[in-house]
Amino acid sequence: YVKTYLLPEKYKLGKRKTSVKKKTFNPVYNEILRYKIEKELLKNQSLNISVWHNDTFGRNSFLGEVELDLGTWDWNDKSNKQINWFPLKPRVEITFKRDLQGLIRYFILFIFTGKKTVSTGEVHIWVKECYNLPLLRGNRLNSFIKCTVLPDTSRKSRQKTRTVSKTTNPVFNHTMVYDGFRPEDLREACIELTVWDHNKLANHFLGGLRIGLGTGKSYGTTVDWMDSTSDETALWEKMMNSPNTWIEDTLPLRML
Q1: Is the CB of residue 125 less than 8 Å from the CB of residue 175?
Q2: What CA dihedral angle connects 210, 88, 81 and 93, to 10 degrees?
Q3: Domain spanning 98-252 has what CATH number?
Q4: 2-81 topology per CATH
Q5: Comma-separated ranges of CATH 2.60.40.150 domains in the chain
Q6: Which of 36, 98, 115, 254 is deepest in the core (most CB within 10 A)?
Q7: Cα gap 123→129, rounded to integer Å
Q8: Which residues, including other chains, have CB under 8 Å from residue 169's CB and lie 6 or more apart?
Q9: What are 8-29's pLDDT values in tens digits?
Q10: CA 237, 240, 243 angle in degrees (round to 5)?
Q11: Which residues pair with 104 in a beta bridge?
Q12: End-to-end CA distance of the chain
């Protein structure tokens, strides 16, 4: 089957897919996947098209993908209005323009709170503000931030800020606290911050960060979320090496 994402909206309303065609290396879909969006917004969008194999156990295996930058697409070219062939490529990191995702300014802190015989502490995440968030719905943007400390995905781990309305440069000034961390746990954990645009029908994903060591593993298990960039990793390492000290940075949001 074929799956498409209209990026950076890689959640819910940005996802479309075809039916599954069985027992053939030359599937014919003959399906139209539609997106309803203002043409002006397409200059900040990218279309990701991927092909997948769905086996008898319900597992999905990636076969290849194509990514089209709609900002440079020539809508007046007649050849682009016909059915074209594109070679599938191996999966690569999404090439969507990072500067269009916006920036987030935040502080993190690890502080010891336990007794001398039991060294545990708290991780504090102070989300200060965001800059230049992308507009997905004309001139309307009502943003908020979700935070999860992985690998814990329970309801207790999920926190969020208030929604700041009608601005692409929201100031949140919100602190989230997670307790019960041993120093060795910091090597296995990862803070996931995601920024969302809120409306009545659905929340639209704008971008995020994953702040951790980026080793690809947590407690010996391979995980896809331990994928921090070098800048995100450098901040986490600085926090680990400087307990009881606020560490500040401003980083670009990215697709997760």
Answers
A1: yes
A2: 20
A3: 2.60.40.150
A4: Immunoglobulin-like (2.60.40)
A5: 2-81, 98-252
A6: 254
A7: 19
A8: 129, 130, 131, 132, 133
A9: 655 445 678 899 999 899 999 9
A10: 140
A11: 130, 251
A12: 22
Alpha-carbon distance 111 to 4, whole Å?
43
Spatial CA neighbour of 125 closest among 49, 45, 239, 225 = 239
Closest to 191 (Cα-Cα) out of 173, 209, 169: 209
Taking the CA of residue 13 as centre, how many other CA atoms within 13 Å lie in the half-sphere pointing to its CB? 17
What DSSP state is assigned to residue 237?
H
pLDDT per position as a tens digit, 22-68: 989 999 999 998 887 777 777 777 888 999 998 776 677 889 999 88
Question: What are the residues whose beta carbons fall under 8 Å from the beta carbon of 120, sequence distance 6 or more?
Answer: 112, 113, 114, 179, 180, 181, 182
The pairing of strands 247-252 and 103-112 is antiparallel
Q: Please give the pLDDT value at position 242.
A: 92
**Would you say the pTM of this structure is higher than 0.90?**
no
- As a whole number of angstroms, the distance between CA 145 and CA 165 comes to 13
- List the Cα angle 94/97/99 in 5-degree steps: 135
Strand 190-198 with 171-181, pairing:
unpaired
pLDDT digits (tens, 9 = 90+) for 118-141: 678 999 999 999 998 887 666 678
Cα gap 58→39, rounded to integer Å:
37
The whole-angstrom separation of Cα 6 and Cα 141 is 18
Which of 197, 192, 231, 234 has the alpha carbon at shortest distance from 209? 192
